[in-house]
Amino acid sequence: VGPRATARKMSINAGDTGGEGAGDRLRVLCLHSFRTSAAILRDQLDMAQWPQSLGDLCDFTCMDAPHSASGAVPQDVASFFEPPYMEWWNATEVNGRLEYVGLEQSLA
Questions:
Q1: Which residues contact 99 (CB under 8 A, 6 or more apart)?
Q2: Using CB atoms within 10 A as the burial measure, which of 53, 61, 80, 94 is most buried?
Q3: For residue 1, what pLDDT is reported?
């Protein structure tokens, strides 16, 4: 079992002037995809220019999965992004059925 999932807040508040309604921005929980990480997701949000587009509307919290990647990382991820690579769970076929290893810890 990997380390407990940790949240890292990515405040996108370029348009926040501290005036009326400054605390009314949306809070968005961002969960990365299979065998990536919160850092990779933050980089992707930056590349898509979300901070510039949504800075006065949203605060994003990017969260790492609790498990280190248990298998090969997709080449399109590994060729652009540095480790660590994380996963929420891994689906493994056992006796003709899928078992979701690590799912319980991810939902805890």
A1: 91, 92, 93
A2: 61
A3: 41
d(CA 36, CA 42): 11
**β-strands 58-63, 26-31 pairing:** parallel
The 3-state secondary structure of 26-44 reads EEEEEECCCCECHHHHHHH
Q: Which residues of the chain have pLDDT under 70?
A: 1-23
User: What's the pLDDT at 45?
Assistant: 94
Residue 12 pairs with which residues in a beta bridge?
none
pTM over 0.85: no
Distance (Å, rounded) from C-alpha 41 to C-alpha 18?
Answer: 27
Token pair in block for residue 40: 């990779």
**Which residues are within 8 A (CB) of 58 and not within 5 positions of it... i.e. 6 or more apart?**
12, 25, 26, 27, 28, 50
- Counting DSSP H helices and E strands in the chain, the numbers are 4, 7
Query: Rounded to an integer, what distance in angstroms lies between the CA atom of residue 38 and that of residue 31?
Result: 7
